[in-house]
Write a structure and sequence with these properties.
The protein contains three helices and no strands. The chain is an all-alpha fold and 84 residues long. The radius of gyration is 13 Å and the shape is globular.
């Protein structure tokens, strides 16, 4: 099981808040995905979990897909902070 320190929980919360507050244009989405992968890398290292750069690349691709979904549906009831 992956453990999250309060520091990591706060980082994840800030990234989610940035997602909800940003316009999610291409440059913003890339920056958010970079922050997300950096956070995931720190969490995996903290928990001494082995991973590859390919694994992180897949996570980044999936995160970008999620950001695109959020961008398209940002003003609908489908997307809110709890669902993210």
């Amino acid at each position: 099981m992956i453990m999250l320190s309060d520091e990591f929980k706060e980082k994840v919360k800030k990234i989610v808040e940035e997602v909800l507050d940003s316009s999610l244009l291409d440059s913003g989405a890339e920056e958010l995905s970079r922050k997300w992968i950096e956070c995931i890398r720190e969490i995996l290292d903290y928990n001494k979990v082995d991973y590859s750069e390919e694994d992180l690349g897949e996570l980044k691709d999936n995160f970008l897909k999620i950001l695109e979904f959020i961008r398209k549906h940002k003003d609908s009831d489908i997307v809110d902070g709890r669902s993210i």
